[in-house]
Design goal:
There is one protein chain. By secondary structure, this protein is an alpha/beta fold. It has 2 domains: 180 residues, Response regulator (Rossmann fold); 135 residues, Response regulator (Rossmann fold), CATH 3.40.50.2300. Helix content is 43%, strand content 14%. The chain is built from 13 helices and 13 strands. Strands 6, 7, 8, 9, 10, 11 and 13 form a 7-stranded mixed beta sheet that branches. It has a 6-stranded parallel beta sheet with strand order 2-1-3-4-5-12, sandwiched between helices. Helix 2 runs parallel beside helix 10, helix 10 crosses helix 12 and helix 11 crosses helix 12. The longest helix is centred in the C-terminal third of the chain and has 18 residues.
Length: 369
C-alpha cells in the first residue's frame, strides 16, 4: 500500500468509533529466553464488529510468528463488564499476555493491575486505562487524523472560501470523538481563514436516529460549505442525505473507514473520505510488544505508540476494502511497517499517553508503509 465509552449510546463512538523504560509492574514478563517462557496470547475486543475483529487478525499473526496459541475474546455487543470477565477468563486459561480495549478506563484499572501483578503482560489498543499498570497503548493519532481529513476538504475549496463546515458527534463530550474534530477544526481554520468550524451538533448512535439527525442538521445550515461526522454510523447516512438532496456541499467522517460494508458507499464519489485506524496494524504491533516482553523480558514502552491511519477515498477504496476483508492483504500492506515500529519503539513512543488527544499533536507524523 502506498505511501478508530460507558453508556449504551456510546456504542456508536466505539463502533463508530487509541518516558523510556518501564514501571515496576509494566513488564510483567519472563526474564529469560527460550520456548519454556512462551505461552498463549489473547486479545479482548469491546464488541463484535470489523474494527476489533481486524485488530484480532493482526494480533493473531503476531502470535503465529511466535508459534503460540492466540484467542480472541470479547462480548457480542458493548458490555464492558462482560469484556472484563473475558479478560479474567483469558488469564485463567493461561494467557501470558493480553491486548485489551480498556473502555471505560477507570473500570479496567483494577483488573489490569491485578493481572500485571500476577506477571501477565497487558497493553491497550485505541483506548487506554489511565493510571493503570498497562503502560503501553497503541493506536491512531486522534487529532492528526482529523487534520488529515481536513486537508482533503481544503483541496476542494478555494483559498478565499467563506462559510462554515458543521461537525456532528454521536456522543456529546466523548474525548475519542472530540479530538479528531478538534484536529479538523484546527487545520481548516488555519488554512482557510474565511471558514469556521463551530462546536459539533449532537447526532445519534443508532442508524435511524443518526439519519434523522443529519437531515435536521443539514436543513438547519442550508448554506454550509460542508459537514463532517465523527462516528462510523455517519458514513452511510451522510451519503444518503446528500444523494437525496442533490446538493454540492462536502461530506466526510473522522471515523467509519474500518467497516468494509460501510465504506463501499464512498465509491460513488459523494464523500471526501472516511478514516481507517489500521486496526490490523494496531493488533500486530501491540501483540508483538507484548510477546517481546512476556517471552524475552523486553521492557514495555511507557506511553503511546502511533500506528497511524489511512483515509478511504473513492480512489483507494478497492485497495482499502481488500485490506479490511483479507487478513493476508492487511499483512502484506502493514507488516513491514509494524516490524519497523516495534524495532524502534524506544525512540518512537510518546511518554504522555494522552498526547494523541492534545491539540499540539495536530502535525504528528503519520507513519507510512
Amino acid at each position: 500500500m502506498k505511501h478508530r465509552y460507558m453508556t449504551v449510546a456510546a456504542i456508536a463512538a466505539v463502533a463508530a468509533l487509541g518516558l523510556s523504560g518501564c514501571t515496576a509492574g509494566g513488564t510483567g514478563g519472563a526474564t529469560g529466553e527460550g520456548d519454556e517462557n512462551k505461552g498463549p496470547l489473547a486479545m479482548i475486543g469491546l464488541y463484535n464488529a470489523p474494527y476489533p475483529n481486524n485488530m484480532a487478525e493482526g494480533a493473531r499473526d503476531a502470535a503465529d510468528a511466535e508459534g503460540v496459541e492466540f484467542t480472541q475474546y470479547g462480548p457480542q455487543g458493548l458490555d464492558p463488564n462482560k469484556a472484563i470477565t473475558d479478560f479474567q477468563n483469558a488469564i485463567a486459561a493461561g494467557a501470558k499476555g493480553v491486548l485489551v480495549h480498556a473502555y471505560p478506563g477507570d473500570l479496567w484499572r483494577a483488573p489490569i493491575d491485578r493481572a500485571v501483578d500476577q506477571g501477565i503482560v497487558v497493553a491497550t489498543a485505541d483506548v487506554y486505562s489511565e493510571g493503570s499498570k498497562a503502560v503501553t497503548e497503541v493506536g491512531a493519532p486522534k487529532v492528526a487524523m482529523g487534520a488529515g481529513l481536513a486537508d482533503l476538504y481544503i483541496e476542494q475549496l478555494p483559498a478565499d472560501a467563506e462559510g462554515v463546515i458543521i461537525p456532528g458527534i454521536c456522543v456529546a463530550g466523548l474525548e475519542v470523538l472530540i479530538a479528531p474534530l478538534n484536529g479538523f477544526r484546527e487545520r481548516i481554520e488555519a488554512e482557510l481563514p474565511g471558514v469556521t468550524v463551530p462546536e459539533p451538533e449532537v447526532t445519534a448512535g443508532d442508524p435511524a436516529g443518526n439519519f434523522a439527525a443529519w437531515q435536521r442538521i443539514i436543513a438547519k445550515y442550508p448554506d454550509a460549505l460542508g459537514f463532517v461526522g465523527a462516528c462510523d454510523v455517519d458514513v452511510p447516512n451522510l451519503i444518503k442525505v446528500k444523494e437525496s438532496s442533490g446538493d454540492s456541499y462536502l461530506i466526510g467522517a473522522t471515523a467509519g473507514g474500518d467497516d468494509p460494508g460501510a465504506v463501499e458507499a464512498i465509491g460513488g464519489g459523494l464523500m471526501v473520505g472516511a478514516v481507517t485506524q489500521r486496526s490490523w496494524l494496531q493488533g500486530y504491533v501491540g501483540t508483538k510488544l507484548i510477546a517481546n516482553s512476556a517471552f524475552r523480558g523486553d521492557p514495555m514502552p511507557v506511553g503511546w505508540v502511533n500506528t497511524g491511519y489511512d483515509i478511504v477515498t473513492a480512489e483507494n477504496l478497492e485497495e482499502i476494502v481488500t485490506i479490511l476483508q483479507d487478513p493476508d492483504a492487511a499483512k502484506d500492506a502493514y507488516q513491514a511497517l509494524g516490524d519497523e515500529i516495534v524495532a524502534d519503539v524506544e525512540n518512537l513512543v510518546h511518554s504522555d499517553v494522552t498526547y494523541q488527544y492534545d491539540l499540539s499533536s495536530v502535525d504528528e507524523t503519520n507513519p507510512q508503509p
